[in-house]
Amino acid sequence: MNRTLLPELVERIGQTAVAKGLDVSAPAIAKAMKAGRVIFVIENEDGTLTGEEVRPFPSRPLLHRSAPDETKYA
């Protein structure tokens, strides 16, 4: 069993291979890396891949900023 950060594994075996091993799309891998998600990929002894994500607890969604109130500046 080998535990590797997602970007390191992508660099070693390629985005397509990692996506196929985790049963997700290649764009999903790219999006996770671009977002800076901390994902470890475990290479199991039977050759399968398993992903684990490290997230803060409790995990709260980011608040979306609304557009500035234009009436303030009129």
Automatic annotation (TrEMBL):
Region (Disordered): 50-74
Any Pfam family hit: Cro
Record InterPro entries: Cro-like (IPR000655), Cro_sf (IPR038202), Lambda_DNA-bd_dom_sf (IPR010982)
Superkingdom, natural source: Bacteria
Protein name: Cro/CI family transcriptional regulator
Species of origin: Pseudomonas farsensis
Lineage: Bacteria, Pseudomonadati, Pseudomonadota, Gammaproteobacteria, Pseudomonadales
